[in-house]
Amino acid sequence: MPTTAPIRQRAQSGVACAALVLLSACDSSGGSGSGGSGGGNQIPTACSESARKQFTLDVARSWYLFPDLLPATVNIADFDDAVQLLDHLTATAREQRKDRHFSFWTSRSADNAVLGAGQFNGFGFRVRTEEGNRPFVTEVFESSPAAEAGLARGDEILAVDAGSGFVPVTDLLADGTTITEALGPAEVGVRRGLRLSRAGASRETAMTKRTLTIDPVSDVYGTRVLPLAGTAGVGYLNLRTFTSSAAPQLRDAFAQFRALGLDDFIVDLRYNGGGLVSTSELLADLLGGARSLTDVQLRVEHSPPRASENFTRRFQPQAQSVRPVRIAFLTTGASASASEITINSMAPWVEVAIVGADTLGKPVGQLAFDLGAKCDDRLRLVTFRTVNARGQGDYYDGLAETLRFACAATETLDRPLGDASEGLVAAALQWLQTGACGAVIAPAPSASQKPAGTPSPASRPPASAVEAWLPDVT
Question: Whole-prediction pTM value?
Answer without folding.
Answer: 0.89
